[in-house]
Amino acid sequence: MICIATFYTHASALLSHRALKNAGIEAKMAPVPRSLSSSCGTCVSYRSDDPHFDLLDADVEAVYEASDDGYRRLLYHE
To answer: What is the DSSP string of 35-56?
Structure first.
């Protein structure tokens, strides 16, 4: 599955990207699709069979599963 994690801060996105990469997960930082969020503007996109919530920084806003049909929210923090 392809996951997209959005964050409240750029630093949080950077920390999460680093944690995913250190765990051997293919991840990249990218602009947030505007249909998902306008918080910090940076997301982390990664491919994995598991969404790995445990590797994401505490300042994560949401995690989505991307598909041809759009996005399905897997996690959301207010």
So the answer is: TT--SSSEEEEEE-SS--GGGS
Alpha carbon distance 12, 77 (integer Å): 14
- Tens-place pLDDT, residues 20-36: 999 999 999 999 988 88
Note if the pTM is more than 0.70.
yes
DSSP 3-state assignment of 13? Answer: helix
pLDDT in tens, 38-73: 666 899 999 999 999 999 999 999 999 998 888 989
Length reported for the chain: 78
Please state whether 52 falls in left (phi above 0), alpha (psi between -120 and 50) or beta. left
Q: Is 71 within 8 Å of 64 (Cβ atoms)?
A: yes
Place of tokens 């996690």: 75
